[in-house]
Amino acid sequence: MFDSPDKSQEAEDNCIRKKLKENKLSKAKYDKWSKEYWNRQKDAWDNFLNNLKNQESSSKKTLTESEDEALSSLCKIGLNADGGIWKNKNINAAIATIKWGENYPDHVQATAYKTCNYGGYLK
Do 47 and 100 fall into the same domain? Predict the structure, then answer.
């Protein structure tokens, strides 16, 4: 929050400071949490991207035209399935399995999300 692009005094007073007070966090505790969170997110993305590289180099799975069409449809459905973004576990599993086979690089929801968003299936 403190490192967000919106550093206006109003945003800090009305949003950030209020939430810190409600959650009994000091700026120092927030800064520590923010840094740890950032590092966890960075590590997760690095791990995912490394797994993608390893998967691509080891399996080189080529999708058939039917699989590619299925992913285009499933990604659009999965995006808002069951009233939430990537909430349907079966659709997520179908997306992950079609793209990656039995060994997908992340949890099923994350794999479906990343496959669809970064694979160009939501266009």
Answer: no
